[in-house]
From TrEMBL:
Binding-site list for ATP: 140-145
Documented EC number(s): 2.5.1.6
Stored HAMAP family: S_AdoMet_synth2
UniProt GO molecular function: ATP binding; magnesium ion binding; methionine adenosyltransferase activity
Lineage: Archaea, Thermoproteota, Thermoprotei, Desulfurococcales, Desulfurococcaceae
UniProt cofactor(s): Mg(2+)
Organism this protein belongs to: Aeropyrum pernix
Protein's job: Catalyzes the formation of S-adenosylmethionine from methionine and ATP.
UniProt xrefs under Pfam families: AdoMet_Synthase
InterPro entries (alphabetical): AdoMet_synthase_2_family (IPR027790), AdoMet_synthase_3 (IPR042544), S-AdoMet_synthetase_arc (IPR002795)
Catalytic reaction equation(s): L-methionine + ATP + H2O = S-adenosyl-L-methionine + phosphate + diphosphate
Protein name: S-adenosylmethionine synthase
Family the UniProt entry places it in: Belongs to the AdoMet synthase 2 family.
Keywords from the named record: ATP-binding, Magnesium, Nucleotide-binding, One-carbon metabolism, Transferase
């Protein structure tokens, strides 16, 4: 069966040629990102258990995680958590497996609790998963029709949904700057240099022509700053780090950095947290409300609204197709000469093999605005076919955590 791959010229300007560009990233400690990360951690642990016990990943979708913010009382030099954060994991999970020896129950509860708490333990320095967080779960069995599709013995899994995956390449200068700003503030090197910088970092980037404004919401850990001047010194050093990064990523732009714009230092109104996340004090979160698969929120680009995190990595096209679309776009941009910008969309049909999308839509902007040539089209089709031929390999990468979706 020949795949329907449509390659055509992209008739619109490059994102970098627009007067205004907007990009956002919700960082590691943002409540929405915590929910995405928790969902992914649970999916990976379930997948590993299913593989170890039964030789294959069984049906599950835990893409409905809710975080209810707690309460805390930060103060300069200290503070305490008054009410813990509540995280609820819900979805559909295979809880029992019929084997030759009878029915074996899957220890779903312990797997979920361990996955979420380990994620928090490994990624937060001041958020204690035992004292500051309550992890709960409400899961049910998958519906019969979806489980039947999932367990079909085809070589290539069958799509469990009719869905759209969307991706593009390359990242613009602003997109790279926003992404790397959050990663820099949450890097090990920064935490060693500035331990007061919390994990909850949100970056909003606005480019107006050749001017870029980064508005950064950066939680500061209250126990690590003893005075207002200490707090302001942390902000100043963080700003210096970001400007140094900008000088390398965006040397041709005038970059301004504004950190914690709601502060009123003379009234001691500061963005202080006990644990490094706003989730400690009323900020709620939910899976799918934050970053897309490439780690960014990009209203200037085509985006899927799928909550990819927590969906099973075998046949849930709402997850796999978004990952594959981004990978395919990156390969096309890197390997096809003259491609300046590329957008990829994949459409699945429920019950059809995941390597056979209903359509692969590739829109390409060539250098100089030229039309895409016949040779370039053949190269792009070959890359698309190659990626789809190897689509089942993405399951292992997702289970290992080699690919993140937030």
């Amino acid at each position: 069966m020949t795949r329907r791959i449509v390659v055509e010229s992209y008739p619109y300007p490059r994102v970098e040629d627009l007067q205004v560009e907007l990009v956002e990233r919700k960082g590691l400690g943002h409540p929405d990102t915590i929910c995405d990360a928790a969902a992914e951690a649970v999916s990976r642990e379930l997948s590993k258990h299913y593989l170890d016990r039964f030789g294959k990943i069984l049906h599950h979708n835990v893409d409905k995680v809710l975080l209810v913010g707690g309460q805390a009382a930060p103060r300069l030099g200290g503070g305490e958590v008054l009410q813990p954060i509540y995280i609820l994991v819900s979805g559909r999970v295979t809880t029992e497996v019929r084997t030759g020896g009878g029915v074996e129950s899957v220890p779903v509860g312990p797997i979920i609790l361990r996955a979420v708490k380990n994620y928090i333990r490994e990624n937060f320095r001041f958020l204690d998963p035992e004292e500051h967080v309550i992890v709960d779960y409400r899961v049910g069995r998958g519906s019969v029709d979806l489980v039947g599709i999932f367990e079909a013995e085809d070589k290539v899994p069958l799509a469990n949904d009719t869905s759209i995956g969307s991706g593009y390449a390359p990242l613009s200068t602003l997109e790279r700057l926003v992404l790397e700003t959050e990663r820099t503030l949450n890097s090990r090197e920064t935490k060693e240099r500035l331990p007061a910088v919390g994990e909850d970092v949100k970056v909003m980037g606005v480019r107006d022509g050749k001017s870029i404004t980064l508005t950064v919401a950066m939680a500061v850990v209250s126990s690590q700053v003893g005075s207002v001047s200490d707090y302001l010194a942390v902000k100043e050093e963080a700003e210096s780090l970001i400007l140094d990064l900008a000088s390398r990523i965006a040397p041709d732009y005038d970059v301004r950095v504004n950190i914690n714009t709601g502060d009123i230092p003379e009234k001691k109104i500061l963005y202080l947290t006990v644990t490094g996340t706003s989730a400690e004090h009323g900020d709620d979160g939910a899976t799918g409300r934050g970053n897309r698969v490439n780690g960014l929120i990009t209203p200037m680009r085509p985006m899927s609204m799928e909550a990819a995190a927590g969906k099973n990595p075998v046949n849930h096209v709402g997850k796999i197709y978004n990952v594959v679309a981004n990978e395919m776009a990156a390969l096309i941009h890197r390997e096809v000469k003259g491609v300046e910008e590329v957008y990829v969309k994949l459409v699945s049909q429920i019950g059809k093999p995941i390597d056979r999308p209903l359509i692969v839509d590739v829109k390409v902007r060539m250098e100089g605005g030229r039309d895409v040539t016949a040779d370039a089209k053949r190269e792009i089709e070959a890359i698309a076919n190659s990626v789809l031929d190897g689509i089942t390999g993405y399951t292992e990468k997702l289970v290992r955590g080699d690919i993140t979706v937030y």
